[in-house]
Every structure is written in structure tokens, then in C-alpha cells.
Amino acid sequence: FSLGKMADELDIADVRVFFLADYLIKSLRLRSDKWTKMVQIEDQNRTILDFCDKAQPTLLVFHVNPAGNLVVGTAFPASLKTKACFFAKKLPEPLQRESKEKVTSALNFGDLSNAALEQLQIYVNDVVRPLIATPQNHEEWPDVISSDLQKHVSDLQSQLQVVNSLVKGKILLPYPKYTSSSTTSNGTTTNTNGHSRAHESAQTSSKNGEVIDLKLVHAVESVVIEWSHQIRQVLKKDSAQPLLDGLDPLPSTEIEFWKSKRAHLESISEQLHDPRVGKMGELLDKSKSSYYPSFQQIQDDVSYALDEAQDIDTYLRPLASHFESLETTDFLEAKNLFKPMFRVIGLVYDNCEHYASAPRIVVLLQEICNLVMKQASEYLEPMELFKGEV
Known about the structure:
Elements (H helix, E strand, L loop, with lengths): L4 H6 L4 H13 L4 H8 L2 H12 L5 E6 L5 E4 L10 E6 L10 H6 L1 E6 L3 H18 L9 H25 L13 E3 L4 E4 L4 E3 L4 E3 L5 E3 H22 L5 H4 L6 H22 L2 H12 L5 H25 L2 H10 L9 H14 L6 H22 L2 H6 L3
Helix pairs in contact: 6-7, 8-12, 10-12, 10-15, 13-14
């Protein structure tokens, strides 16, 4: 039987192979010659035929490589520049060739974004979480299993949010699973996700008689712990670390470090001044939580570190043009650049409160020495040095 005009153009008689080609050309918006060029390569063609005729492989992943050619593999690539398509067998067995319906029923297939983390985050937020958050979907489950699964999904959401922000070079503080609660007329407490739980479970009263949801308190405490770890990672970073690691950083590294640290801390500070964070602090205070001092300490530490980073970044920026000139000027002509550069460094030391210490200046001077040695090594030709002695 005929598979149609496109199959004739591609010279494909196998319904299984045509399904793959048809899906790829439409999904990736390819010209048909891209497929033809790929299958002309023996290894690529053999991989596709083995997928159709044998139990293994069970996965095919197609994508366009940097050269603009369609390629196929049997594993997900470590990184993608463009969208990819995957075909995975439901069972490790050859594909039946009777009809397209037989082929599609034996496969899981779809598109894979080049931003896999974002795609996974959207999938968890828009598909997994709503399914788990709907009580009708797990009415027959024990309460313990239902609650535990919801907690794990919530934790996964938070982790994906954090990792995705780190990949983009940002620090994103996740919020607790429950952000508010209220007591309904039938004696149950409802959280912002719309779930009801027994009124008698996990509640206490504050001094003024206000009912406090202990589950909400626990969720906030868990987030405070997570925030503490995230923020400590930013606060403990030191511009001297590359030197301690035995590297040879240049003075531009110092400027970029404080510029980056300032940006991260400004982002964190902005998030900590969100009204929701203020309500979290009020809740911890009312419940006499042992994590309230830690919550306050986080805010104090970020405030101090932000003042430091803003101060240092502001004063170091005028040095950027001096370092850039030193890097781009011919080595023999660079001697006139040092006097004004060190004059500015002296002004930084005199006026920048947070940079006026020996350890800070020593790091900067070491980086300047690295730059001078780099420029000298690039200027000097080893063979020319020894020519006169031969």
C-alpha cells in the first residue's frame, strides 16, 4: 500500500520509518532533504532500523547539530542548542509494521526543549502538582500517603525552582508550601491550595488566643533552614578564593566578583522585603518558634553584606578603566599607567570603609602582579632572550 506523496519523496516504504520521518519533519520544521542526508550515513540508518526491527535500542533521540544536520542517538544528549524529538518504546520489542496505529500505540514520543529544566519545572507545576493537589484523585489513599506525596511534590517544586534560578545565575528563595490558612464553618482548616484537614490536628493558641496552624509554622521553619543554606553559600564567597586555589586571577576578577555579589545580595534583599516574608516572621514570633532568631539573623547578615558589597563595588568601578588600559597597552609603554592607578587604589583604601584592610588590598595587589607578569610573558620571546648567548 502507498504511504502518500511525502513517503514517495523520501523513498520510504516502511510505515514505522515513515512515522518517525513524518513526525520529525513536522515537529522540527525540517526540509525533507535533512532526513535523506541523515539516512545516507550508514551508522545513522542502522540505528533507526535496529530500533524498528530489534528489541534494542528502546530510545531514539533526534536533534539538529551545530552544523545544521539532523542526527540520531540512543540516549538523551548532555546539552541541546535546539529542540529535540524522542521516541521511546513502551516494551523492549520490535515495532509492528501493520499500521501507523500499531506504531504509535507501542511508543511514547514527544518534543524535548533545549531548556530541559524549565520544561521539567512547567511539567511539575502545571501537570503533576494539580493532579496530586486534587483530593478526588486520591480519595482511597490513606491520609499519611496522600500527605507524604504532596510534601514530596512540593519539595520537588522548590528544588526545581532553586536549581533553575541558579542555572540562570540568580538566587531564588522558595516560599513555604502553605502560605496562609483559615478555619471553615465545619471545623476544618483550609490552606491556600484548597485542601482541608481536621481542625483538631496541628493547631495551638498564642497568648492573645489567636489560633496558629502548627503545620504552617513547620513549613515556614523548613523554608528558613533552606534559606539559611542558600544565603550562607552567597555570604561565604570570598574574592581571595581563586588565589587560595592556586589560580592566577587578574584584577578584573576582583571587580567582577563584587559586581556579581552585589547583584545577588540585592536580589536576595528584595525578596526578603516581600510582604509575605514579613508575615512569615510574624508567624514565627507569635508561635515562639526557636527559628525566629535565625530568621532575624538571616536578614541582619544580608543587610550587612549588601552594604559591604555596594560600598566596595562603588569604589572599585573607577579602577576598571585603569586595569583595562594596563591590559591593552604595549608592555614597554605601560609604566606611565601605574602612578595614576595606584593613586586611585590609595583613594579606595582611604575612603572605602569595607575595603580599608590589609587582606583586601593584598588580594588586589596580587592580582595586579599577576596581570603584570602575564603582560611581560606575552611581550618577551624566549628564543629572543637566549639568542645573544648562543
